Protein backbone atom coordinates (compact mmCIF):
# COMPACT_ATOMS: atom_id res chain seq x y z
CA UNK A 1 0.00 0.00 0.00
CA UNK A 2 1.06 3.57 -0.62
CA UNK A 3 -0.28 7.12 -0.61
CA UNK A 4 -0.03 10.06 -2.95
CA UNK A 5 -0.57 13.72 -2.06
CA UNK A 6 -2.40 15.89 -4.62
CA UNK A 7 -2.73 19.58 -3.63
CA UNK A 8 -5.91 21.04 -5.11
CA UNK A 9 -7.57 24.42 -5.39
CA UNK A 10 -6.56 27.94 -4.37
CA UNK A 11 -5.81 26.87 -0.79
CA UNK A 12 -3.72 23.91 -2.02
CA UNK A 13 -5.78 21.51 0.06
CA UNK A 14 -4.18 18.11 0.22
CA UNK A 15 -6.23 15.39 -1.40
CA UNK A 16 -4.75 11.94 -0.85
CA UNK A 17 -4.97 8.83 -2.95
CA UNK A 18 -4.58 5.81 -0.69
CA UNK A 19 -3.61 3.03 -3.08
CA UNK A 20 -3.70 -0.71 -2.49
CA UNK A 21 -1.80 -3.61 -4.01
CA UNK A 22 -4.39 -4.16 -6.75
CA UNK A 23 -4.55 -0.47 -7.81
CA UNK A 24 -7.76 0.09 -5.92
CA UNK A 25 -7.72 3.43 -4.16
CA UNK A 26 -9.59 5.52 -1.65
CA UNK A 27 -9.88 9.25 -2.31
CA UNK A 28 -9.48 11.34 0.84
CA UNK A 29 -10.74 14.95 0.70
CA UNK A 30 -11.26 15.72 -3.01
CA UNK A 31 -11.34 19.45 -2.40
CA UNK A 32 -11.34 21.03 -5.87
CA UNK A 33 -10.12 20.68 -9.47
CA UNK A 34 -12.07 17.53 -10.22
CA UNK A 35 -10.83 17.34 -13.82
CA UNK A 36 -7.19 17.42 -12.65
CA UNK A 37 -7.81 14.73 -10.06
CA UNK A 38 -9.72 12.61 -12.55
CA UNK A 39 -6.83 12.84 -15.01
CA UNK A 40 -4.26 11.77 -12.39
CA UNK A 41 -6.37 8.79 -11.40
CA UNK A 42 -6.90 7.69 -15.00
CA UNK A 43 -3.25 8.09 -16.00
CA UNK A 44 -2.22 5.82 -13.14
CA UNK A 45 -5.01 3.35 -13.94
CA UNK A 46 -6.30 3.51 -10.39
CA UNK A 47 -9.69 2.14 -9.41
CA UNK A 48 -11.37 4.37 -6.80
CA UNK A 49 -13.73 2.54 -4.45
CA UNK A 50 -14.68 5.22 -1.89
CA UNK A 51 -14.34 8.84 -0.80
CA UNK A 52 -13.47 9.56 2.83
CA UNK A 53 -13.83 13.07 4.22
CA UNK A 54 -11.83 14.28 7.19
CA UNK A 55 -14.35 17.11 7.55
CA UNK A 56 -16.74 19.16 5.44
CA UNK A 57 -15.15 22.56 4.94
CA UNK A 58 -15.55 23.81 1.38
CA UNK A 59 -11.89 23.39 0.44
CA UNK A 60 -12.06 19.68 1.27
CA UNK A 61 -15.34 18.82 -0.48
CA UNK A 62 -15.41 20.85 -3.71
CA UNK A 63 -14.96 17.89 -6.07
CA UNK A 64 -16.93 15.31 -4.07
CA UNK A 65 -19.87 14.99 -6.43
CA UNK A 66 -17.70 15.02 -9.54
CA UNK A 67 -15.62 12.11 -8.21
CA UNK A 68 -18.64 10.27 -6.87
CA UNK A 69 -20.56 10.56 -10.12
CA UNK A 70 -17.75 9.65 -12.50
CA UNK A 71 -16.51 6.67 -10.49
CA UNK A 72 -19.86 5.64 -8.92
CA UNK A 73 -18.42 5.37 -5.42
CA UNK A 74 -19.79 6.13 -1.93
CA UNK A 75 -18.91 9.08 0.30
CA UNK A 76 -18.26 8.77 4.05
CA UNK A 77 -18.60 11.61 6.57
CA UNK A 78 -19.09 12.07 10.32
CA UNK A 79 -22.68 12.52 11.50
CA UNK A 80 -21.95 15.95 13.01
CA UNK A 81 -21.18 17.36 9.57
CA UNK A 82 -23.58 15.34 7.43
CA UNK A 83 -25.65 18.46 6.73
CA UNK A 84 -22.61 20.62 5.93
CA UNK A 85 -22.13 19.18 2.45
CA UNK A 86 -25.01 21.16 0.96
CA UNK A 87 -24.97 24.10 3.36
CA UNK A 88 -22.69 26.95 2.16
CA UNK A 89 -22.89 28.70 5.54
CA UNK A 90 -21.71 25.68 7.51
CA UNK A 91 -19.07 24.52 5.02
CA UNK A 92 -17.65 28.03 4.81
CA UNK A 93 -18.07 28.64 1.09
CA UNK A 94 -20.61 31.40 1.67
CA UNK A 95 -17.99 33.31 3.67
CA UNK A 96 -14.84 32.61 1.69
CA UNK A 97 -15.87 31.92 -1.90
CA UNK A 98 -17.47 35.29 -2.71
CA UNK A 99 -20.78 33.91 -3.85
CA UNK A 100 -19.48 30.65 -5.32
CA UNK A 101 -21.41 28.37 -3.01
CA UNK A 102 -20.19 24.80 -2.59
CA UNK A 103 -23.10 22.39 -2.35
CA UNK A 104 -22.76 18.63 -2.63
CA UNK A 105 -25.28 15.82 -2.37
CA UNK A 106 -25.71 13.96 0.94
CA UNK A 107 -23.09 11.40 1.90
CA UNK A 108 -23.80 7.73 1.31
CA UNK A 109 -22.46 6.56 4.67
CA UNK A 110 -22.66 8.42 7.98
CA UNK A 111 -20.01 7.66 10.59
CA UNK A 112 -21.55 7.67 14.06
CA UNK A 113 -18.63 6.69 16.26
CA UNK A 114 -15.03 5.56 16.33
CA UNK A 115 -14.68 2.20 14.66
CA UNK A 116 -12.56 0.12 12.32
CA UNK A 117 -13.68 0.52 8.74
CA UNK A 118 -13.03 -2.15 6.10
CA UNK A 119 -13.37 -1.04 2.48
CA UNK A 120 -12.07 -3.49 -0.12
CA UNK A 121 -8.55 -4.46 0.95
CA UNK A 122 -8.19 -1.43 3.24
CA UNK A 123 -8.51 -1.53 7.02
CA UNK A 124 -8.84 1.94 8.55
CA UNK A 125 -9.18 2.99 12.18
CA UNK A 126 -11.45 6.00 12.66
CA UNK A 127 -10.55 8.56 15.31
CA UNK A 128 -12.93 11.35 16.25
CA UNK A 129 -10.71 14.45 16.48
CA UNK A 130 -13.06 17.44 16.87
CA UNK A 131 -11.84 20.98 17.47
CA UNK A 132 -11.11 22.36 14.03
CA UNK A 133 -14.68 21.38 13.27
CA UNK A 134 -17.16 19.30 15.30
CA UNK A 135 -17.10 16.27 13.00
CA UNK A 136 -13.39 16.13 12.20
CA UNK A 137 -12.05 12.62 11.68
CA UNK A 138 -8.54 11.23 11.44
CA UNK A 139 -7.96 8.00 9.53
CA UNK A 140 -5.22 5.74 10.91
CA UNK A 141 -3.62 3.01 8.80
CA UNK A 142 -1.70 0.88 11.28
CA UNK A 143 -0.01 -1.30 8.66
CA UNK A 144 1.31 1.83 6.94
CA UNK A 145 2.16 3.70 10.18
CA UNK A 146 0.24 6.65 8.76
CA UNK A 147 -2.60 8.89 9.89
CA UNK A 148 -4.58 11.16 7.57
CA UNK A 149 -5.21 14.01 9.99
CA UNK A 150 -7.16 16.57 7.96
CA UNK A 151 -6.90 20.05 9.45
CA UNK A 152 -6.31 18.79 12.99
CA UNK A 153 -2.50 18.63 13.11
CA UNK A 154 0.09 20.18 10.80
CA UNK A 155 3.84 20.39 10.53
CA UNK A 156 4.64 22.76 13.39
CA UNK A 157 1.06 23.93 13.77
CA UNK A 158 -2.54 22.95 14.52
CA UNK A 159 -5.91 23.62 12.92
CA UNK A 160 -7.65 26.97 13.18
CA UNK A 161 -10.64 27.10 15.52
CA UNK A 162 -12.32 30.40 14.58
CA UNK A 163 -14.79 28.84 12.14
CA UNK A 164 -18.31 27.56 13.03
CA UNK A 165 -18.09 24.76 15.59
CA UNK A 166 -14.38 25.28 16.26
CA UNK A 167 -13.03 24.86 19.78
CA UNK A 168 -9.37 25.40 20.65
CA UNK A 169 -9.28 23.40 23.87
CA UNK A 170 -11.19 20.55 22.26
CA UNK A 171 -8.69 20.52 19.40
CA UNK A 172 -5.74 20.26 21.79
CA UNK A 173 -7.49 17.45 23.66
CA UNK A 174 -8.14 15.59 20.40
CA UNK A 175 -4.51 15.88 19.34
CA UNK A 176 -3.09 14.82 22.70
CA UNK A 177 -5.54 11.97 23.37
CA UNK A 178 -5.96 10.55 19.87
CA UNK A 179 -2.86 11.41 17.83
CA UNK A 180 0.11 11.90 20.15
CA UNK A 181 -0.52 8.44 21.64
CA UNK A 182 0.40 6.88 18.28
CA UNK A 183 3.98 5.61 17.76
CA UNK A 184 6.52 8.38 17.23
CA UNK A 185 7.35 7.17 13.73
CA UNK A 186 3.72 7.49 12.58
CA UNK A 187 3.53 9.65 9.47
CA UNK A 188 1.05 12.52 9.78
CA UNK A 189 -0.56 13.55 6.49
CA UNK A 190 -2.24 16.93 7.03
CA UNK A 191 -4.90 18.77 5.07
CA UNK A 192 -2.42 21.44 3.97
CA UNK A 193 1.34 21.53 3.64
CA UNK A 194 4.02 18.89 4.07
CA UNK A 195 3.85 15.68 6.03
CA UNK A 196 5.41 15.25 9.46
CA UNK A 197 5.63 12.59 12.18
CA UNK A 198 4.09 12.22 15.60
CA UNK A 199 7.53 12.25 17.20
CA UNK A 200 8.49 15.45 15.41
CA UNK A 201 5.35 17.24 16.57
CA UNK A 202 5.86 16.10 20.16
CA UNK A 203 9.32 17.64 20.13
CA UNK A 204 8.89 20.73 17.97
CA UNK A 205 5.25 21.88 17.76
CA UNK A 206 4.94 25.05 19.88
CA UNK A 207 1.15 24.75 20.14
CA UNK A 208 1.39 21.42 21.94
CA UNK A 209 3.29 22.86 24.88
CA UNK A 210 0.05 24.32 26.22
UniProtKB/TrEMBL annotation:
Keywords: Hydrolase, Metal-binding, Zinc. Pfam families: Lactamase_B. InterPro entries: MBL_Glyoxalase_II, Metallo-B-lactamas, RibonucZ/Hydroxyglut_hydro. Its cofactor is Zn(2+). SMART domains: Lactamase_B (SM00849). One of its GO terms (molecular function) is metal ion binding. Residues 12-192 form the Metallo-beta-lactamase domain. CDD domains: metallo-hydrolase-like_MBL-fold (cd06262). This is Metallo-beta-lactamase domain-containing protein. It comes from Heyndrickxia oleronia.
Amino acid sequence: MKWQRVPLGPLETNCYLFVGDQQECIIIDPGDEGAKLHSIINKQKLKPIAILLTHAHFDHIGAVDQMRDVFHIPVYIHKKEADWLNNPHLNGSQMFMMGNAVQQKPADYIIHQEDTLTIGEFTIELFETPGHSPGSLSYYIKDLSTVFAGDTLFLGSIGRTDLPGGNHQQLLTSIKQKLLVLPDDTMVLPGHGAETTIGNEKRMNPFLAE
